[in-house]
Specification:
Layout lengths: L7 H32 L3 E6 L10 H11 L3 E3 L8 E7 L9 E7 L4 E7 L2 H14 L3
Helix pairs in contact: 2-3
Amino acid sequence: MDTSTPDFQSLAARIGRGMRRILPAALLFLVFTGVCGAQDRTFKIFLTADPAGQYGVSSSEVGKSLDSHCPNVVITANRDKADYLLEAVDTGAGKLRKPYKVTLFNHDGDRVFSTETAALANAVKDVCTFIQKHKQ
């Protein structure tokens, strides 16, 4: 038999040993990418109108704060595709009286978070913190 070319059985044995080394690493890679992929999920918020219809905060104001504090949360104009509904109200009461009242509802319409702050950016930051802790 020619010793310069390996026979089929020894080649298969070497491939088998190599697969035993590669398989755990491949499985670990798939698990890791699955976990990281879940962290990169984009959440959609639908901005609802103020129930009284007069003190709502514009989507551009909320969007600006979301962009700087919550890059994985976006405002959508499609209520059906939203993960959350956000009611943001500026009562005009003045900074010392916490004029921004923000309520977050889940897709079913249940209130899941509320906050009152002196600055809209702080209210949005609080909403972002809530969403990150309670990822669906």
